[in-house]
Every structure is written in structure tokens, then in C-alpha cells.
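A reminder before we start the practical. When you read a complex entry, don't treat the lines as separate problems. The point of joint prediction is that each chain is placed relative to the others, so the output describes one connected object in space. Small molecules and nucleic acid strands, if listed, are placed in the same frame. In the example below there are two entries. Take a minute to note the order of the lines before looking further.
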Amino acid sequence: MNSKNILHPFFLAITLSPFLNLHAQDSISISFGNLWARSIGPAVMSGRISTIDGVHKTPEIFYVGAANGGIWKTISGGASFDPVFDDHIQSIGDIRIDQSHPDTVWVGTGEPWVRNSVSIGDGIYLTRNGGKTWTHMGLGNTERISKVLVHPRNSAIIYSAVLGHLWNANEERGVFKTEDFGTSWQLVKFVDENSGCADLTMHPTHPDTLIASFWDHRRSPDFFRSGGPGSGLHKTHDGGKTWHEITQGLPDGQLGRMAVEYAPSDPNVVYLTVECEKKEEKGFYKSTDGGESFRFINGDFGSTVRPFYFARLTVDPNNSEKVYKCGLDLTITENGGEAFRTVSSGVHSDIHAIWVPKGQPKYVIIGTDGGGYRSLDGGFLFEMFMNLPLSQFYHVSVDDDVPFNVYGGLQDNGSWYAPSSAAGGVENSDWLVSNWGDGFYSFRHPTDPNIIYSESQGGNIVRHDRRDGQSKDIKPLPREGDAKFRFNWNAPIHLSKHNPDRLYFGAQYLFKSDNRGDSWQKISPDLTTNDTSRQRQARSGGLSIDNSTAENNTTIYTIGESPLNDRVIWVGTDDGLLQLTRDGGQNWTNVTPKIPGLPRFTWCSYIEPSNHIEGVAFVTFDGHKQGDKETYVYKTMDFGQSWIRFSSGHINGYAHVIKQDLVNDQLLFLGTEFGLYISLDGGLSWKQFANNLPGVAVRAMAIHPRDHSLVIATHGRGIYILDDLTPLRLITTEILESSLAFLDLPPSVIRLPKSGRPFGGAGNFIGENPSLSALIAYYMQKRHTFGKMSLEVFDEEGQLIKELPAGKSGGINIVELPLRLPPPKAAPTKNRMALAGSLITPALLEGNYQVKITKGKETFVQKITLAPDQESIYPEADRTLQQKTLKILYDLTNELGYIYFALEDMHKKASVSTVDHTPLKAELLNFAKEAEKYKDSLVSLEGDFYVAEGEEAIREEISHLYYSISRYPGKPSQQQIRKTQICKINLARSKDVLMNLKMKQNRSMKN
Amino acid sequence: MKKVLTAIIAVFLIAVVPTDAQTVDEIISNYLENTGGKDAWKSLNSMKMSGTSSMQGMEFPITIYSKRPNYEKLEVEVQGMQIVEAYDGTTAWSINPFQGNTTATKADEEMNKEAAKKTFEDELLDYAAKGHQVERLDDAEIEGAQTFQLKLTKKTGDEQIYYFDQENFVPIMIRVFANAGPMKGAAIETYLSDYEEVQELMIPHSIMQKVNGQTFMQATMKSIELNPEIDDQIFAFPAVPESTEEKKMSEEVPVKKEMKPEKKMMDDKPVLIEKKKKEDPKKN
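Here is the predicted structure of the whole assembly.
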């Protein structure tokens, strides 16, 4: 600790700067202070939920674990949810409540539904206070925990089923057990480095008996294998000391992913789903001897579909014959698997989690690829939780509408768009669909507001017309003699900055269209390795073929046309190549060999040609699909001839995207699997931005050229917007050397609030709008803790307009200046609308203001400007008249307040007078009464603030008028203006009465 | 003044210890010493703070009275009307015309229970003797300052988390969790700054509250009085006025018969509902 900082508080303001060494280098690292990202959803299209657990005794309390969006807790049966895990890794494997201590909750991280886009976890966590605080309890290198079980009679004993690494072999997998609340873990069942524990179930009355299903599996960029020699079913009777393999009744040969579950109400009944070699043996099995042997029951579609994605069973704790099976649809059997019914009722496909509380068999909560649902009729009809913003974006773009719209595609959930702000906030109904399927890139045509380009998996690009909602398939098709086109699962669409009708699209070739996709020109040879050993999508899946295009490989994955020269185009491939043309596609150069320290075949995730210098480009690579979780971020300044790699010292997670700011070329934004990182010094140093943005995968970003907003597409928490990048753009080494320095923002536009749709109840997500206040920004070297610090705003005449609480953060401070005058000192009223009328105050007028910060003995001054809304539909003269009229009524309110309180004062003084001269005393009392009577006549203090309101007095007349005029920013009506004059005259009379009374008072007092 | 200075110099010596090695008790005792010393805190029996609070872009005068053991009263002046929130040791009550409570209204049982848990004395003072536990969590950056994070678990099981600035050991943020009402479960964060000496104690004059991360209230105290005389009566839930006492009501207008007794107000304090007579303003 720097001893110089431990001075008397009054001297703290002048202590030495920790940034003094900045002179020596250019590294800039700051606190982002209260710079803040806001979430706009969507939640109407939610995202993948991987697990759910609730409290049996109080089933209105449950936790939802998301694939990549953290943990959400409700205590109201879903009416509202709070995110309770935002400081930790966002991919959730399993949640397990210790039902005997419901505030004790274990969380195994790392989603076990291992699709191509799955994220990773970092071990197991424990809360003992219902999610308020969490402690990491080890198993850090497990990546995926599929199940956690708590011993029902000894809370210190926990079993953790570790699925382990997906993309490579690892030893830290199998069944782990702790007997000391997670302080130490013992691996009690290990099979091999390729096989993890996919499911684990505990005997309902004999908790030392458990059955574990092991799964041998592996993913690579181009292939998925489910099943192998390591798969199998293992059972222990002694809490994991010894295990025996269960084979009786199970198919011969290799096994795949299996779900296994005891019926809580009958320990003899165990259910199992089996993935195996022979089609006729795949399906739903049942044991009636406590899991020693099994019998095939059913091989229908629901029992066999995609085991890697759906191998999970929930047995109704109240009924051993009722089983819920996860699947493409939710299927339910009420007779132990003999027959299943399929739930439709508008529930999203791909069910991963089901919870049914003990004692309430009709209450069912499910989690799907598209969010959470609740049934109160035992699983027939479901209603959706419209308040879980878990959407998983792959990409994002913006248009130039006012406010601008945001476009993007979601895992399994189509392509959506919404305004970046809306009346009352960005609500569920503000989000609209442009295409279905899995969604990826989505753009609006740069000049034609009706056209949206979107796509679904495997290169199915469409051109959507908003006028009639129809879409044209514009996918490039091979000509005679062409090789088959290979499109990535997430194939890149790129819009040209140089021609509004031009777009690029990538298979193994780069295509260009100058007519909105009606025809395509191939402008490159095969830019991939074209390694045929990596082209095995049709055989992918292992024991269950899973040919979904998810493993399409040797394809183009990212395209970047230089914003400065349309002949310079970069292309990155999923098999590790980076290619460049400088002549619009005539000649291509593979620049990959020039990139230092990049392992072969590392997926090129994003290319960002600089907006500032033609030869500069930034590129990210992502090796996690070959088991390499390093961060690879590079920059070239010479068209790829040489590269520097940015140090990944402060960066966590494999890299998805990098963006260079449009204004400040040193300002860079990097999205990794674990969050957003910002560099203010061209990539020398990085700091995570976590102000209201959890450490969720940031897959894509867009910078709005007009509004200077950073739009952040997360894969699990929807869209976030950092509204104004200006403060970040203005940070320089000079600024960092001052104890406090203003950051000069563009003029704040005076905008009017609009009302939303308020009566939707608690269950609807509403995304925050940008602030309507004027913003004042400054940098402060250290947090202000000791001594006074104030912020005052003066008008151009030097008159104090407002005093605001100053921001105290070290780093960037944003203070909101409400664009309204302070409320007048009004007389009381018990009329509701009149009170509202005197709370709404006139808007600050456009023009210049001065901001003064006083921090201890120092003062800092800055000019700010309020600008009129250029979009306003009201002529300036009308707006001015409205403002003038309001100002008159505002002043009248103040004057009336003065009169009222003066009378009150008179009344008090007269009535407490100690004069004992009887006639004089009587006179004084009379006077007191008169003052009071007049005072009371000015206001209406009758009633209940609602319907039993008294008759209006002048106080209410002024405020009502004020309220009605203030609600419309244009010209007030003739009547309103006339009434204003009447109020003015009446108030003048009141003033006279006050003067008369004052004279009387003076006379009485003199006597 | 001198005492604080001495205390801080003393802490200066202690604080040379690397931050990692700070124990819970060292952090707390540094905090208490740095802000005036345990004895000074112990001899604080009542407090009156007044200043300005801003909510939703508007500013209002605010006064807070508090007194041992757990009396508290908050008054906010809004356009001649008063919002009151108070606890008198047994009853939490409020007046809030904006929520339709124009007369003193008792809080529901759950909220009342919560109010009863708050104490005038700093919970960290002799926390062990009070049956509380404190645990140090990972250090955290709060508003650009490095902080020690201490979790206090009260005897009642309630938790609050303190963030002490590592440079000077004063709390700059306290996080609690709402235990009742529609916000139940929500994190309420109170940010403290503008610490200034008031007699012997260092007291934050600027308070900002965030609920679930969004700024909800900011208050700047213009004056803080230590150990003022405060009559217990001002905290008390207003009793039903005796009918004979009502001087004005009897004169011109009959008391509204339908009014429930608990909705009536005394006419001393608060001021907002004192007149029951009806006057026609147009007569004047």
C-alpha cells in the first residue's frame, strides 16, 4: 500500500497520482466508473435454459439456469426473476437445492447439452443465502458439470457428475464426491479421459446407492461423435467406494448418451433412455428392481431423438409411472413409458429441463431452447415467462432510423429486430421477426428500409420485405460443373460500405452480388484448405447421425471489405486461413503463414479492416473447438505482411470479435466467451467492461456512426447498448494526469418522454431506454470519498439553475442533468392532479449552460449545450409560446406558495402572541383568524387525493392549467392562454390581500 | 478534530501491513478508529440530518431523525406535502399522499418486522458481542476504488456486505437485500461519500442508493447534528386524537363520520392534514 495515501482526508484530494508513470509509456487503463450498458432484450424470444430446480415446500421459489445466461431466481412463481449469478461464469450445468436447507444451493457450471455452440463452465459454486453470495468450491478444470446431488440427510455430502471437456481429452471427469461441503473432492468413479458422467441418480431412500451413466463423446470443428467404449451404466451401494456395471437388459455393443432416473416415490422403479448401435434397441427402458436390470419399453421418436441434446428424464415425485422426457418436444407418459403424449400448445421446441415439485403434481416448470414455461394442469397447457432475456445472438447490425433499429440472429430462434429505444422502454412487443430457423447475420438494406437480409443455418440466405412479410431465397447455387458449395452453420453475410445494393456471402468461395442477391458472382477460388478429411458432416453424430450443418467445415466464416477501399477484401475461414485480395477478388494471398504463434487450423472468428488506415486490420482467432482456449487477437499495419499479437494478460476467454472505434483509432472493443474488453491504447492494455454487463459471451458488436453507441450482441443475455462512446473516445494521457477533467460531450438533445403500455403486470421484460437527461461527463483520477463535492449548473446569465449530486467514481463519471427546472415552492393541495401539475416543471431552454464542480477547494468549470430536437414536429414559435406560458404558470405557483406561507406565518405569529391586553388580544386573534381564512381559501385541502377531492381553489386552477399545457409541446390553446391571464389577475388580487393584511398586522403589532 | 487526526495517523502505521494480510477485525477497527473511535461512536445517542434528496430528477428537502435504540423518522417535503416514514420501536408507519396514504398508515407485518431489525448503532461495533459474524470475501473494485469486501451475517441471519476503501478503511458502499415487499430479494446498494467531520465523527454527507443496479435516490446532507434532544414522541405512530382536543374541527364543519379512526391525524406533526373545514374560495 502506498503510504502517501494514508493522509488526513482533507489532503486526499492532492495525494500523488498513481498514474504518474504514464509519461514513460502509452498504456492507458482506467475505471469505467458509472458508464453503463443497458439491456434491451429480447425476452419475448428468450434463450436456451439448461436446468431448473425449485424448493419443494415453497414451489413459487425456483432457479432457472441458462445455457449461457447465468442463473435467474424467482420467489413469485415466475412473475419476476432476478439474475443472481452475474459475477460468475454464465454457462450453467446443474442447479441443486439442499431441500432441507433451501437457501443452500449448489451450482455445477458448464452446460451439458453439448451442441456446436455450447459454452464452458469453471467448476462448482455454493450459496448458503439463496443466491446473494456465491463461493467457488473447486472442480475448476471440469468445463461441464451435468448433475449435482445433495445427500438428503447429510448436507456436507455432495456428488458431482462431471461430464468434462468436450473438445479434448481430460482426466478431471467422472463422479466426484465431497464429505465436507466441497472443501475437498474425491474422484469416486472414473472411466477414461474421453468419457464423462452424463447423468447421476440417487436412490430415494438409500442415498448411498447411486447410478451413474457414463458417456464417451467428442467434438471437433468438423465432427461430433456420441458413443464409444467408455459409455456405460455404473451403480454403487456404498456411496461411491465400489461400483459395478449394469448390463442386464441393456443392448450389446457401444452405448451413447443415457439418461437415468429413480422414481422418487418408488425406489424399485428406475427409468433409462438408451443410445446404442442398433436402431431397434434405442429408446426408453424401465427397471423394476431398483436399477439392477432394465427392460426395453418404447422406441418412439420422442424416446430416441438426439440423445446428446435431450438425455434427461424427470419422474413425477408424486407418481412413479408419470415420466417427463426432454426432447424435440416435451413428451409425457402416465403409464411408465408404454405410451407418451406430446405437448404442443405453443411451447418452444428443444426441452432440456423439467421440474415438478413434491406434493404439487400439476405444477410443471420447463426450460427450452426458447425460454421457460409453466403449466398448472400437469403438462397440457403452458404459459411462457416473458421476462427472461436469455437470447443467444450470433451477430448484430444497426440501421440509420431514429431511433436506430438493432438486427440480429439467435441460436434456434430466428432473426429479430427492434428499436434501440421505444415509448416506455423496449418491450417484448417491440421485437419483430424477419426470418425463422437458427438466426445469424441480419442486416437492413442501407438505403431501402423495407429490405432485411437474414439467413438460417447452412447458408440459407433470404431477402425479406417488410411491406408484405414475404422472403425470397437468394442462396447462391452451383452452376454446371461447380463443386458443391460448403456453407458454414453460421455463414458470413457482409454488406458493402461502398454500394448499398452490394453484399458478400461466403461458402468455400466468396460471392458478391450488386443487385441485392438476385444474382451472385464468384470472386475467389476455394479459399479454405479444402481438406476432404474435414468434410464429413453427413457422417457426423456417432451412434445417432446428426447431420444438421453444425459441423460443416472448410468454409469461409468471416468477411471484411475495407471501408476505405472496396477492392481490399479480407476473408477468414473455419479451418484457420486468412486470405486477402487487394484487387476486388482477382488475386488472393493467404497471409496466415505471417501470423506468429497461431496454431494450425485455428478458426478465424472475425476480421475488422480498419476504418482509419487501409493497410490496418484486426483479426481474432478461436481455437476452442480443438481444445485451445487461448485468446488470439492480432493487428497488421501492412496488409497482413506482418502481425503483432495483443497480450492476453488481462483477457479471459477465446476471442469472437474485435471492433475498432470509428473516431478514436486507439479505442478497441474485444468480445470473448467471457465478456467485453476495452482497450484505450490501441490494444496495449485491456480491461473488462462489466458495468451492468455480465461476463457473458460477446459474439458481435456494432458501432452506430451517428449516435456513437456500441451495440453488444451477447450469446445468452440478448442485446446491450453502451449509449455514448464519447467519454471513452476522449480519454488521453493528458486527461489521466488531471485530478478531474471534463469530457466534452456533444450537445444534449432535448427529447420528450413518451408513455408506454403500463398494465402488463410484472411478467414482462421492459428494456431500459437511454437517458432523457443531458449528460455531463468527467474523468476523476480517484474516487471522491472525503470532503465536499458538489455540482452546480448555471444559465448563461450566471444564475444558478440546479444543484446536482456529483458522481464520485474514480474513472469516468456520467452525471444526469434532468432537463427541467426544480419544482416551485408550491402551496399544499390535496388535489391529486394539481399536485402532479406542480411537480412537472418547465423544461430547461435550449442554449448554453455552465457546469461547476467544487471538489474540496478546487473548482472545475465546463460549458454544456442543450440542443433542440431536430425531429420535433412543432414550429419553434409554438414551442416558445408553450414554454413562455408554462414559465408564467410556474412563476405564479411560486408566488402563490410565497403568499400562502407568508399568511401561515402571520397566522402563527398572531395566534401565539403573548399580549395580555384583552382588547388587543382579541384584535390579534381576529387578525389571525382572518389570515388563516384567507390562506385556506387559496388551496383545496379537502379529501383523499382521489375522488373525494374538494372544490378547486386558485392553487389547483394554476396547477391544472400547468399540467395540461405541459403535456403538449406545441402551441397552447386560446382558452389555455386566456385562463393563464385570469390566473395571473387572480393572483395579483391575492397579493393585494396579502399586502393589506400585512399592513393590518404591522398596525396591530405596533399597538 | 485532533482526535480524528491522531486516529488516522495511528491507522497509517497499521496500514503499512500488506492489504492481503488485513484481518476482518483489523479492517473494522481501522474503520472505527478512522471515523472517530469506538468511544465516540458509543457515545452517539441521537442524530438529526437534513439536506436535499433527489429522486427521478427532482429535488426535495429531507430530514432524518434517529435515536437509540432503533427509532427513526424520515421526512420528505414535496410541494407543501410531506412524506413520512418512521419507526417508533414497535410500529413502522408512513404517510405518503402519493401512494394514497394521506394519514399515518401502519406498515404491513413483514415490513414492520424488517424495520424492527434496524439498529441505531453501527452493526459492526462490537459485532461479535451482538452475536453477528463477519467474513472477508474477495476484494472488489467499487466506483474505481479498490475495496475490502466484508460480509456481515447478523444474529437474525440477515446479511449485509460492506466495501471498505483500501486506502482509508471507510465504507464506500454497503449492499443489503430487501427482505420484504415487492422488491424482496433485490440488492439495495448504498454508496457513501463526502465524509466530513461532525464534532468527533467522520460522517458521509452524500448518500446514493441503487436498487438492482439502478440509481433510485441520492441525498446530500447540509447539516448533521450529533446527540440533539429528540423527543421520543416524534417517532410515535400518531394516536387517535381525543374528540375534545379538536379545536378547529368542532367549529364550522362536522368531522366526517365515515372516516376510520386510524386514518385521523393529530394536528401537531406532521403538518399536512390539519384542516377539516370547508371554505368556498370564491367568497373572497
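Discuss with your neighbour: The helical segments of chain B are 2-14, 24-34, 38-42, 109-117, 247-251. What might explain this?
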